[in-house]
Give the backbone structure.
Amino acid sequence: MVPCSRSRVMRTSFFANFCRPLTVHSRGIQIKHRHYWHPALGKRIGQKIEVSWDERTIQHVYAELEGSFVQMAVIGQYPDVWEADWEAARAKVRALGRGYQADGGRAATARAIAAANQEIHQARVRTKEARRRAKRREGEGLTLADLRTPEKLLKQPVQWKSVGELGEDTWLKVRP
């Protein structure tokens, strides 16, 4: 980046004011994953323009359009902080994300899978119960036959015959 020689924006400030040619996209100018927009950029999509910014805030940048500087506001919700503070906070969040992926990501994935399996099991139970209630309501599977278990028949007591009543051993002979 080169310091702006033509900068009329806060020339006496103690911060470094940089100019950089950037391309205007449909979402405006992009600087470090933030987009800035001004209605005057609508006619300049696809063109390169000189952009300058104040490192003490990420709320706005300045674009040189037709010999004058236009202040472009950031798109989205960002706090009014120094750019260095914002980048340090982003680095901390990225580090936390890497730690989550390295250690906690697996555990969180396992918990999510277990919750999904539990939900599937509960859905199966609810479906089975709903089908059972529907069958009962519609009378499906009913028969007019009496399916109650019959009462036990009283068995005749076993009548043992004595050897004398059996007679000779004719009862032992095999018949051809």
